[in-house]
Structure formats: structure tokens, C-alpha cells
Amino acid sequence: MSLEERLARAVREAVREAYGVELDGIHVERPNDPRHGDFATNVALANARVFRRNPREVAGGVADAFDAPFVEKTEVAGPGFVNFWLRPAALWSEVESLLQQGEGYGREEPSGDPIILEYVSANPTGPMTVGHGRQAAYGDSLARLLAASGKNVFREYYFNDGGNQIRLFGESVAARYAGIYGREWPVSDPESLYKGEYTGEIARDLSEEYGERFLQMDPEEALPEISAFATRWCMDDIKKTLARSRVAFDGYFNEKSLYESGEIEDVLQKLREGGYAYESEGALWLASTRFGDDRDRVLVKSDGTYTYMAPDVAYHLNKRSRGFKTAVDILGADHAGYPPRIRAGLVALGIPEDFFDVELVRLVKLVRGGEQVKVSKRAGNFVTLDELLDEVGEDAARYFYVRSSHRTEMNFDLDLAVQQSDENPVYYVQYAHARIASIFRRAELDESGIKEAPDGDIAPEERILVLELLDFPRVVRNAAARREVHPLPTYLETLATRFHQFYTVHRVLVDDEKVRQRRLALCAATKTVLRSGLDLLGVSAPERM
RNA sequence: GCGCUCGUAGCUCAGCUGGAUAGAGCGUCUGACUACGAAUCAGAAGGCCGCAGGUUCGAGUCCUGCCGAGCGCGCCA
User: Fold this and answer.
1) Residue at A384 is within a domain
2) Which ranges of chain A have pLDDT less than 50?
3) Which nucleotide has its C1' atom closest to residue A55's CA?
């Protein structure tokens, strides 16, 4: 049990003893100002009405009845807070416990219902963009965070390799391919073709591998093969970029398989039978307004092809049938209209409303030279994720992506990111880690051997650092519960600051055996938490820089 | 027009689901390396927390209404 929990329990007992009342949800927090103690509780303020007395008086009663061996001093302050100061022995003993838990500190073993997290799912029709990069960084870190907080997480990427856009993409590549041989390809709509440079690259690879083979075939027969080649090419490209970004998945799901297995038809059939799908104007509609959507949605177009709705509902039903109890999709904010529709389809199929949830990630605005960069896939415009990674590096990119809430729009100033890379906060955090590593090198010690923190005095800088270390599990827990990653960078920067402050004032490698041992323990503990936190972000923790 | 999300220092962003004097980084200014890494530390300046009401002991945080921004409201995904 954490110190915070033990404090809350002791406060509860004090309230019972003083007033004969059992209170739930007692709030214990770290005050902003260290002069207000190590921890504080607002029970007296929050429950003054229950006791029909003024808060300070209630706080006094609680403080008098309070008794816990790990607390050195209590105090009633301000409008009615009870402040607590911990005994040094209790703090050192917490450090010891942290060291013994090692990498497991702040993490819980996975248990409970499995949850499937889907992210990126960029269409295999081009390279990943900086927008996908943000979703990838957020999704991957969220997955790690949820796992660390004891969730059974399965991470999946959904490849849209079945719809109309794949046909168009195939035609785009086919047109470039034919062009290599000075020929024309019969395209359905020249306006909607993909125009990026990479289509030419794919066409060249296609021609290298197959020569003129597809020009001698009936275009309608050749196209599926060309589409498949182009799609596979993009998937490989995307997977390379993901690997480079340290973004991992447990599985890749292909939309095509839903066509082949008949799951889409099954879904449509069930919706018809349930009376949730109806024919109108030659199309098949989902009566999604019955489940809170703004309007009904088309499932099957009048030309007989599916909208994205049909396979997507089938896909999420598939997730459910694989045993997942929760499905969370991470999508770009431009998909804001998506969740109610898919949920409507699922609820119509008898799936609980809370099965499916979405986190929308705001798009990334690129700024260069003080002006917004137009998002266009033309070369030289610096829009692919690979180009960004080349410029700022993997660590800085991942850190920068998740430093701000995924719910706020992000301005990615390219000049700033490149030019100030040395001042990037990620280096500040990494530097603290490297600094500690350097101490252990100097001492010729392996920090994994440090497991003890002997009792003794604790300096203010040490106290603040320990308290910060003890906050880590709560930060992980809360961030995971709110599906927010950005509290972690904030925490790590504070922790790094606390360490640097400690380091500036106190020398670690001193002659006094016990003092030295305590400070080494503090260093080892800080290093563990820094590494653990950086790992959750997919950022490296260097031994030297 | 309706719906969702957002509005905090010059810039980029935090703010522990209602607590004490709203915090970091960058930028600006002033100091600190003859002991473990100065990619660091100490300090200064910089704020009607979009505006106006309300809820209560207490509001950046919750409610309502405005103002402003982004996105959505396709037989596109």
C-alpha cells in the first residue's frame, strides 16, 4: 500500500475516533508549497457541513485524533487543511521498497477483461504523414500506459485494403506504370488519382519486377494485381516507419478478409432481419437515427458497392466476437462524425453501447518560417513522418508528439524543432538519466545492486525528490484512467528538475558510508523511474549523451 | 443553423476530475563551473486563466449564456 493510501486510511480512522463517522473517498494530496507539509487532506473542508462546525475546528479534531507511526508532525492550516510531515525513516523505507520493485515499480500485472486498441490504421495508399505520427506516438504510448496500469491490451492496425480507394490507388500506379512504356492506362476518373511522387516509385518497382506483363493483360484483370502490389508496397513502407518510431502492434487486420469471410454480408443480413436496415433510393440504409445519430447512413450504395460503414461495422463486430470487452479506436479529429455511426450499427446488432469508444487526436499543423505549411504530398514539402524523423530524430519526435494533450491542436514548428533540438525538454529528462549513470560509472558500481537506503536525516532537496518518486504510480494510474499520455512528460520533467536540484546541492560520493549509501539509493531509484517513464513514451534512456 | 472539441505568460504547453500565493520549457535580463557531466543550477521580468453571470466556505477546474477557433453534419474515409 502506498503512503498516500496509508495516510488516507489513518485519516479515516481519526475521523471515526473524533466524530464517530465513517467517511469514504478521503482525499489526500501533495500541497503545492512544501511549507504546507509532505501531504495534506481537505476532509475538514469537504465535510464541514456534515459536522455542522467550522472547518478549522473539524480539522483540529481530526489532527488531535490522528495517529500513525510514519507521520512525524501534523498541523492545522489555512481554511481547514490538515498537513502531514513524514518521518525520514518512512521515506527511506519507501525508497528501499521502490528499489526492490525495480522495473515493476508503478506498474501492475495485467488482469481483467481484454481491451483492443486500434491506432494509426493509415490507408496503404501512401507514406505516413506527420499527422499519423502523432496518432502513432499517442496510440503506442497509451497502449504501454494501459498495460502498465494492469490492463490486458491488444494493439491492432486495420489496413483498409478492400474499398474503392484501393482501386483508385491501383489505377494511379497503373497509369504511371503504363507511362514508363509510353502507353496509356484506361482510368475511370483522372481527377481523383493519387498524384504523389511515390506512385511513380511504386510503378518503377512494379516494372522492374514484372516488366510489361500487365500491359499485355486485360486491364480489368491486371488491376487487382497491381492494386495488391501497390498496397503491399505501402504496407511495407508504413511498417518500416512504424518500426523506426518504436511503435508496435500485436496484430494487423486486413479489411479484405471481411469480404472474403462473408462477415460483411452477415452483418447486413442481421441488420435487415432486425429491421434496422432498409432500402431507399436504390441504396441500403442503416436506421442510425434510432441510436442517436444525426441522420441515417448508407451501407450499400445504389451501384451495389459498400460504403466504409459496412466493413467497419463488421470489423468491430469481429473484435467483439474475438472476446474483447472494450474496443478503443484512435482517430484523427476529422473523423469526429464516425463514432456515433459505428456505435449505432453495433447497438443494432445487440452489442452494449459502452463496448466501442474513440479517442480523437487533433491534427498537426506544420509551421515553417512563421507560416503554416500546406499539407500536400508533393516532395520537398516535408510532410512525411520519415522526413520529420530524419530532421528531429526519433526521441525528440516521439516526446514532442505526446507532450501536449492529444485533444489540443498542435503547432509543430519545424524551424524550432530542428534548430533548438539541444534545448528540447526530452534532452533535459535524458540528461538527468545520463548524469546518474555517470555517477555510477565514477563509483564503479552497478546500480541494480543498490537495494538499501539506511535510515537517517533527510535534506529538503532529498525529501522533495523522494516525494516526487512516490508520485509515479499515481501518475501512471490516473493518466491511464483518463487515456491521456501527456501527464507523463510533465511528470518526468518535474522529476528531472528535482534531481538536478538535489544534485547541485548535495554530493553523492561522500566519505560518510551511510550518507553515501542513501544518496546512491536515491540516484538508483530516480534512474529507475526515469527509465520506466521514458520507456512508456517509447523514448530511449541513454547512459551517456 | 445544429453537434463535438478547444480557448491559461510574447511562443509551445502543464495544472493531480473543486483547494492554500495559477506552474514549466523556449525567448528576454542578472548571477554560479580549482570536487560526482554547466545539455545544469539560482534569481528577475512577464497573467482581468476568452467575456459575463451562477452554484459554495472556496472556481482555471462544475452549470448557463455570449465571443472566438478547429472539426463534423457525403451513396467520401
Assistant:
1) no
2) 377-380
3) B57
